[in-house]
Amino acid sequence: MAASKTDATSVSSLDTVENLTDIDSIKAAFDKFCVEEVTINSDLEKLIENQGRLENKMGNMHKVIPNIQILETDSKNLSNMVAFTSTLAENVSSKVRQLDLAKSRVTSCIARVEDILDLKFCTDGVQTALQNEDYEKAASHVHRFRNLDENVLRMSLTSGESSDTLDNSFKLLHEAENKLKSIVNSKFDAAVHSGDSASVERFFKIFPLLGLYDEGLTKFGKYLSSQLSETADKSIRLAEAMGSEDKRANVMYADLATQLFEHIAKVVEVRQPIIETYYGAGRLFTLLKILQVECDRQSRQILQQFKSKRNFDHVVQQVQQSTMFQKQPASEKYEPKGLDILLSEVVLLNTRAELYLRFIKRRSTNDIEAGFQNDVNIVKEKITDVDTFLDNCDLKRLMQELIGSYILMEEYFMREMVLKAVSMDSFDTGQPTSSMVDDSFFIVKKCARRSLSSGSVDGVCAMLNHACTVLEQDFREVLHSRIRVGFPSDQYLSVAYNMVQSSLQQGKLQSSDTEKQKAQFLTTLNNAEASCEYCQSLKTMLEAEVSKSFHQSSEHTKAKLESCLSDLGAAANRFKDVLEFGFTQLQSNAVKPRVKPLADGYLSTSHNITEEDFSNFEANDPWVQNCIVQLDTMLAAFKESLTSGNYDKFVSLITSEITSQMEKAVLKTAFNRLGGLQFDKELRALVGYLSTVTTWTIRDKFARLTQMATILNLEKVTEILDYWGPNSGPLTWRLTPTEVRHVLGLRVDFRSDEIKKLKL
Amino acid sequence: MEDYKYLFKVVLIGEAGVGKTCLVRRFTQGLFPPGQGATIGVDFMIKTVEIDGEKVKLQIWDTAGQERFRSITQSYYRSANSLILVYDVCCQASFDSLPTWIQEIETYASTKFCGYLVGNKTDKINDKEIPTHIGQQFADRYEMDFIETSAKEADNVDKLFYTIAKKLSKEAKQGELISDDTTKFNTDNTTSISNCSGCLKF
């Protein structure tokens, strides 16, 4: 390549050389050619060097060639051998396969021979067993025969010789099977008829061997049902004979239902193992369905008895009427107290029924799960079947009806009893609350708990809703209307005083009326506080009980209950609103009028005083001592009649009022240095006193006033800067710069231009 | 606190078989379950919707229509922010029973709630027995809102619940404003007359 390239260039350059005319260019061309010659020479040398190496390689190649030929023949041999081996293996394995096939044929042949032998054996056995009345044995023969594939056996006999005997056997066996079926059926019926429970059980076990699963279970179920019915009738008769003074007389029908349910549960408990052993798992529900029919029948009977004996429908009707016409006089209303016992029995009835239905459901579900372990879909389908069956069974429907009436009556009971508690309200001296709070909450709690014990989720939810209504609407309305009357205005106000005086003279108003009114107002305030608290604790308590009673329920059910419970919390807040409303009433009618004269008293005391005045005040206090005494008498009067929570709230209310009125008064007062000192002393005394009467910290409320006192105690205007801004330290100023300037301006000895110059 | 601004209780009532459960299922789960069995007692579903960028939680109580559950379902009326009264447009009997339901509402519900009359099953066009204007007339007489729906075809179902959510949030907002500048005690449960438009007045 390199060489040819050089050639090409040299040729082309040679062409041009011939055209060259001047010496310089010829020289240049010559030089170029010289360089080219050198490179060509070196290229050639390199090629010659390679020659030896290439020859060596060629030699090596020649040596390898014979080896390759040997390899070729070897591999041909190998391939032949492999092919040979493979055909050999093929031959051998096909023989093995044939052998295998032969063997399996032999086995099935043996099996069939055995089957045929069995068949013969069964045929003989069945007959002897039937003759000996050994039905179990006969049935087991038939069972064995039923497991044989008849068609295959017939087909396997191509030669006609023994087909007759075979046909004969089949015929005999079919006959025997039918015979056995009818015998077992009739014997079972006879056993049932004669009440021979051992024989009943004996034949019950034979049914599955003959493939009569459903028939066996149905017959057995009917037998058990009739037994159930007998015992249930007996217990009803027994119960009817029971005297009314018996201690269980009040829950007689609940007890009857319990007996019925327990009996069925016991039957299931006892029979389940037998069914599982002889019928296999997954068939229990067939029996339970039949038993449920009888259970429904018996339950209906018990409930009918219950309703007629307890006059249930009549009571329900009366309650319904009383609810409809709430305005009618109390004397015409149905007496709620009479419901108490009836309601307890209804609840008990439902509890038992729920318990029983849960038991049946659990048993069926477990049995189905055990029976169809491999197929999730079948399990699901069967369980849905169970659910629909139980949801629609008569017992459930009857109980739903009963719970419906129960809620109607329980609500009536609760509302009427609460109203009664309100109307019978009384308060003992020394008790902060009156009787209606404790009584009403006791009733609500009782009713809510009773509904809880019924075990009916919807019943509980409904009663929780009703409890909220009664508390939030009926009961709260009573408190609210009493608060709305207001706290009677204060006698300290001269106007009011005169008015009271004049009415006293006219005999219109007894002074005790005002006192009574006051006491009632404060009691109502306490009632509202207690109600709020009770409502919360009622919710907490019910929450705990709900989670205990319904811990097995679905999340959905729990959420439902929780939602209804949370409404009780909302009801607590409504009581809080009433309380707040009460305190606003108290503030305008009791606190403001009493604090006002105190602040006025402060205003009328000069704080621009001489040294002499100051020391004189030391001995004869002009304002604060009297103020504290006044406050003390007022607080003492309220302390007795308020709960500690309400009292603290009241003190805090007074404190706020004092601070706001004092602030206004201070900002209207002129001070000198000593006056500031005097104010500081007064404030300390007041804060000191108020701190002793309450458990709350009130210093915070006095923060602004204390800061005012600090400012009024300054030596000179600029001293404020020692406390302000970066120098404030732990102190947070509650006064704005404008307010600070204003307070500074109250000092008669501070110059206003100096105050203006301050940079705050 | 959970992540929502308002919580409203919506209670569906009406005769058995008018499609209350289907309406709720359609709205909350987007399903139309064929062969729905009768509701037992009261069922309860929750769906959070967004109204003007704010999360509103609807607590929907689906009540049983059958008579024997009446005393259970009645207990939910008072705390309901909205009552949806459903009838079947193909079933004259379900429409004829409406006055009884109205009477029930009158007796048990609080005075302040949003009432909605719903004619369901509009998909069965050929079987329709109650013309739209008759339903509308009835709703007007009792100052209720009115809508016709099909839970099967998902017609107007979302619209129904969203309208309610919107209306209730609007009222709640107004209520907040009112309680800010006047004392809370004017809005007394038993004495105040609802001032919101579209509320039932008897």
TrEMBL record, chain A:
Keywords: Golgi apparatus, Membrane, Protein transport, Transport. It holds the Pfam family COG4_C. Its main location: membrane. It is a peripheral membrane protein. SMART domains: Cog4. Residues 173-484 form the COG4 transport protein middle alpha-helical bundle domain. Gene3D superfamilies: 1.20.58.1970, ESAT-6-like. It is found in: Endomembrane system; Golgi apparatus membrane. GO terms for cellular component: Golgi membrane; Golgi transport complex. GO terms for biological process: Golgi organization; protein transport; retrograde vesicle-mediated transport, Golgi to endoplasmic reticulum. InterPro entries: COG4, COG4_C, COG4_M, COG4_N. It comes from the Eukaryota. Required for normal Golgi function. Component of the conserved oligomeric Golgi complex which is composed of eight different subunits and is required for normal Golgi morphology and localization. Belongs to the COG4 family. This is Conserved oligomeric Golgi complex subunit 4.
TrEMBL record, chain B:
Its cofactor is Mg(2+). It comes from the Eukaryota. Its EC number is 3.6.5.2. This is Ras-related protein Rab-30. It comes from Mytilus galloprovincialis. GO terms for molecular function: G protein activity; GTP binding; metal ion binding. The lineage of its organism: Eukaryota, Metazoa, Spiralia, Lophotrochozoa, Mollusca. GO terms for cellular component: autophagosome membrane; cytoplasmic vesicle; Golgi apparatus; lysosome. Keywords: Cytoplasm, Cytoplasmic vesicle, Golgi apparatus, GTP-binding, Hydrolase, Lipoprotein, Lysosome, Magnesium, Membrane, Metal-binding, Methylation, Nucleotide-binding, Prenylation. It is a lipid-anchor.
